[in-house]
Amino acid sequence: MQADTPSAQEARPDHRPGQLAMGIAAVVVAALLAYGAAHIPSDAGYAGVGPDFLPWLVAGALGLCGVMLILEVRSGGYRNMEEPSGAARGDWHALAWVSAGILGNAALITTLGFILSCALCYTLAVRGLRISEGKSGGNAMQALRDLVTGVVIAAPTYWLFTKFLAVNLPGLTGTGWI
Fold first, then answer.
1. Which of 7, 25, 109, 130 is the most exposed place for a label (fewest CB within 10 A)?
2. Chain segment 114-159, per-residue pLDDT in tens
3. Residue 159 CB partners (closer than 8 Å, separation 6+)
4. Bigger pLDDT: 63 or 95?
5. pTM for the complete prediction?
6. What is the DSSP letter of 39?
7. Taking Cα atoms as reference points, which of 85, 70, 68 lies closest to residue 12?
8. Is 134 in a helix, a strand, or coil?
9. Do the beta carbons of residue 162 and residue 169 sit within 8 Å?
10. How far is residue 4's CA from residue 6's CA, in Å, rounded to a whole number?
11. Contacts 24+ apart (CB under 8 A), 12-18
12. How many whole angstroms separate alpha carbon 21 and alpha carbon 153?
């Protein structure tokens, strides 16, 4: 890595305030989670672990991440990293498509059933991944192929969970196959 000239250092934005804010926010949310976990009655739950185990685990991990972010700011923060270029910069359109797929799946799984909502999630996420590679999102025929592929992936997954593992997943019909 070549030495930075004064003009190159001035051109780079200082991300330390944002990074510090994220670290502090993570520690605050972790403290709130720990406060909430402390007020959960700890009757024995799954596998002898009380219901407060997972909130404490998440609070600890989030607090650790927050502290690590704050310590990183003290050592210079992300300003020491080179600015990403090209595909590494990220693509908000791609993120929006993938996020829409995930949120759509969560919102529609009880309405459409597991197979159709997962197929929709797959279709939207694949479109976002194509966009992130700089390709076209695809036309209606490509979307239909992606939807069929999503069904082909989700149907055996549904069958495996419901029939083999005896895990109830939302189905479209009362019998639950679709």
1. 7
2. 899 999 999 999 998 888 777 777 788 989 999 999 999 999 998 8
3. none
4. 63
5. 0.51
6. T
7. 85
8. coil
9. yes
10. 6
11. 12/79, 12/83, 13/79, 14/77, 14/79, 15/77, 15/78, 15/79, 16/73, 16/76, 16/77, 16/78, 16/79
12. 41
Residue of 95, 107, 104 whose CA lies nearest to 147 = 104
* CA atoms of 35 and 14, how far apart (whole Å): 34
Quick one: 116 exposed, middle or buried, by C-beta within 10 A (0-12, 13-18, 19+)? buried
Q: How far apart are CA 49 and CA 7, in angstroms?
A: 57
Residue corresponding to tokens 């685990």: 57
